[in-house]
Structure formats: structure tokens, C-alpha cells
Amino acid sequence: MADEVELEVETADEFLLTAVGNSQDRKAFSVLFQRYAKRIFAQGMKITRNEQLSNDLVQEAMLMIWQKAPLYDLDKGTAQTWIFTLVRNRCFDMLRKLKRQPEGISADDVFAETEQAMSIDPDAQQTAEIQVAELQEHYEKLPSAQREVINAIYVQDLTHQEAAEKLNIPLGTLKSRLRLALNKLRDSIQVET
Amino acid sequence: MNMTEKHPSKDYLRLHNEGLLSTGMTVAVSAHLEFCGQCRDESRSMVDDLARQWCADDVPASSMGDLAAGDVDSLLSQITSQLQETEEVVERYDQSGSGYELHMHERSVKLPGVLGKIASNGVVWRQLAGGISTAPLSLDREAQCDFMYMRPGSQVPNHKHQGTEITLVLDGNFFDEMGQYSPGDFILRDGSHIHTPQSDEGCLCYTVLDSPLRFTAGWSRLLNPLQSLMFNRGMR
Questions:
Q1: What is the ipTM of this complex?
Q2: Of A69, A70, A97, A96, nearest to A83 (Cα)?
């Protein structure tokens, strides 16, 4: 079971991002690059219809993912949302630059509320220092019902609704188990740090 | 007055979250979100949905031209040799607790974060007839963005819009033929509306006038003195 989880953990974007953020894991980053670079390029083409600019966007966005990965906290939301908003913000700034819009504000100002709302957790910075290995260790200690939920949401990347259906439990139960599990993980990590 | 008319429509919210709205408009939506918890919640779950959708969409096979494996390797090693950020430095005007305050005439108003950032670049008020003042903002070449202040008891002359106009109430209140508005209200008007805004107690708004045909607007400035007064101060 432990081995299986470890393999699956490798495949979830959340764990890859955490590995990049906490241990500068280049292999994890290269997997993220494989998964997202083309998507980001396509987004650039959609907006600019210019290959060079779209390549620039890929480089800039992937660089920011690398640089900001330590700030990612899985409690704040999915890796997909985190990467989507990061790319969206770079696109917004790129479009403004293309249109020669006045300087003085950037996407980070315009979308600050969303980002702030996503980071209301005051423990965010501490959480960012977790090692993936530690996280796995604490995960193993969770009651199996909570482990199932974490596994469904963060490893298999199911939505809350899908996970509830798969595990055959009510949505409310799923959410409360998820909350309990995340709190427990956070607590156990804080005790150590 | 229908509730939804004081909030951005779903389409506006989606375009905002996709980063595709013009800067002036997207600032209005962003500032509205600081006022309105309901739209904020909707916006958050919309971003999750958009992200999921984005990741589920097929990517064209020809993407990224012919970036060779060697190029990717060298790009990766270039990126991963950069230092990472360990702390988020958020420069926001309302994080110090006091926020950015806009001072004009007899009133000081604490602004939503994004407008505070814009106002911090400097605001120059121009006094117009009838107790109306405006401060053009250098923000968006494709839309006319202003702070507009109505003194207590003032009235904006009867006017009609050329494009789409968004008004976000920041402080005080005003009313027109279609309703009464208070802080946080997001009001969208198009060319079909003729209105006469009035304020009893005074009102500060952020207004955006989207004029996609700037040349037409330029000509109509010659044709229509009122429009020149109201809507085409433009970028400097």
C-alpha cells in the first residue's frame, strides 16, 4: 500500500509542486513542465497569435512556477488553480504591454483579492516548508477513512463531488473528513517545525 | 431595481477571471469584489472551474513549434538554477490597516486595494459645473477611467452614452431615473440609456467608459460639446 501511494503521489500536481517548493526537486519540475508547457503555449497563441511571444510566456510562467513554488500551499487550493491564475496573470500583463497600456498597475494588483482570499491561512509560510517525505509520513498515520479522502482529492485529483460518489459517502461527510485530515496534517507538521 | 443589476454579470465575472476584460473594466470588477462577499464567493469557485476546464481542454498537437529535447533541457536547467522565493511580499495599501485614502473637498474615502494603488500614482481633480469633479486616471488606453465626485445636492447634466459605461459607487450614494445606488454597487449602462444622476449626500464613484471607436468619439467631441465635457478627456 505504502509503495502504491508513493507512486501515485508522484503523479499529483500538488505533490510535484510541493516537492519543487520544498526540496528544489528538478525531476518534479520537469514533469510539471511536460504537463503544462504546451498548455501555456496554447494559451499564449490564443491571446497573441504570435509564436515568439507564446514561447516567452512559457518561459516566464514556468520560471515563476519554479520561483514561487515554495509559496504554494495545498490547503489553499488545487495546483491547477494556482498555475492557472499564475498564467492568467502573466497573460494579462503581457496583453497590457502589447497594447502599450500605461504602467503603474499589474495583474498582481488587479487580482490581489483572489490571491489573498486563497491565502487567508496564517500558517501558509510555515506550511510551505514541509518536506514531501514528512507529509507522506503523517499521511500514513491518518485514520484510513481520512486517508481515502486525501488520496481521492489530492492524489487522484477528483472533485469533492466525484470523490464523495466514488467513496460512496455524503458530500458533507467527505468535506468534514477532508477538513479533519488537513487539520491533523497541519498540526503534526507544526509540532515538528 | 433588480438585484443583479448592481453586480457584474456572470459574463463579466468570467472575462475578468480569464484576464480578458479591458483594464478599466477589470479594475471595476476587482474593486466590486472587495465590497461584495457574494460575488467574491462566486468568483472563487469560477476560478476553480476555469482552471479545471483549462487543464481538461485538448492542446493542439503542433504546440510549441519544434522545440527540441535539447532546448527543453537547457531551458529547464536555466530555470532551475534560479533562486526561489521563500516569502511573499505583498504590496497592498490596506494591509497596513489604514488603507489608501483619497482626499477631496469635504470628504476622505478609503479606497479598495486596486484603486488605492492607482490613486497612489497621483490624482488631479478637475472641477466641472454643477458641483461635479472628475479625476482622469491613466490606466487604460481603450477606455476612459475616472474618479467622479458629486457634491451633496449636485446633479450630472442629462446625458447619453456612446459606449458601455460602468459606474462603481465607492462612497456616499446617488440616484437616477432607474434606481438608487450605494457603495459597492456596480452599474452598467449602454447607449440606450439616458440618465440624470443626482446625489443628496455626495458621492464618489469610479467610472469607466468603454469607447471602442476612439476616432468616432474624437469626431463627436467636435459635434457635441457635452460629450467632450463628459467623456473624452482621454489619455495624456
A1: 0.81
A2: A69
